[in-house]
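Recap for those who missed Tuesday's class. We walked through two folding examples back to back. For each one, the amino acid string is listed first and its predicted structure tokens come directly after. Nothing is annotated here on purpose, so try labeling regions yourself before you check the end of the notes.
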Amino acid sequence: MKTTLLKPEDYTRSPWKNGGGIFTDIAGAHRAGSPVKDWNSLLWRFASTPIVAPGPFSHMPGIDRLQMVVKGRGLVLKSPTQEFDEREPFTTVRFTGELEIVTALEAGPVEVVNLMARRGVAEIELVALREPGERPLSAGTHLVYAAHGDCRIRLGGENFAISHEYTLKVELTEASSLALVSGVAVLASIQLVG
């Protein structure tokens, strides 16, 4: 098990693909040997971003997306065929980057976290940990993000305190378990395929 504490001052900023806002990039991976780290070389990415006005989402062919509101409430994603309800914070929705989506804000601005991965390259999961308890973790990369104040977790017999908006990056070569001790955390899990 390898753990790395990622600090907010080390996060980078990048524009949304459609230029409509700014991501705070927390962690990610690109194809090895890619001359440029861009949307074409992206393997996976975990980022936060404010949504302050209704508008269209970026078109991201070949990308699977998971999203969760971590501040504010009342977000709805509308596509021509369905609606994704994120009115309550810490609700995860899954959609494809090809889907035409426009946001509706029913109660003002929100902040969301996004976990994105190139389809066929990685399996992804995004869950909120709000109640103390244990959950299994598979081999892969896991990000524990303190989205709502400080939190404490226990991982493989070790205790970790994670300050607000910090992220504990956990790289596992074999299965383990994680327990939320206190606070609220967002758990993003990435398993590369093959």
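Example two. Treat it independently of the first, because the proteins are unrelated.
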Amino acid sequence: MVKFYLKISAELDNVTELEPLDTPQEPHYYTFKIECTKCRTVHDKDVQINRFEKHEMGGSRGEANFVFRCKECKNEHNASIERTNAKLENGDSKPVAILEIDARGLDFVEFIPDGKFQAKGVETGTVFDEVDLEDSEWYDVDEKTNEEVSITDVKWTISRS
């Protein structure tokens, strides 16, 4: 089993506590490009993993959030994900690990941020829960202060532990 961390870094302006919007009622679907470690084939479709979904693994080895059979080598692989307690804070200079991934037979090549994220206004505590980071930036106005809030220069990294 290999452990990966999904990390985020960004420039936060007038917002803090950036994290995925991820609850049992409204789960975040984490989207990745994956590669089979057995035959080194990069899967042609992006895969989505929801941390609240459980799937049976073949050979009655328990459950995982994601179970995948490679089309090329026919091997079954799996992954389980867990949110860390970390949030990207205003002023963080290093990338913050927001997701822990335990994977068997898979490499996580790229993260595609197509779900909703949330952040809080620094001054007001206003919750922005429709943050879209697909374009690596987001802009809004905190109506309590009438100031612009933004998240720019968003970078995602996947690292092995």
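Answers for example two:
The chain has one domain: 2-160.
The radius of gyration is 17 Å.
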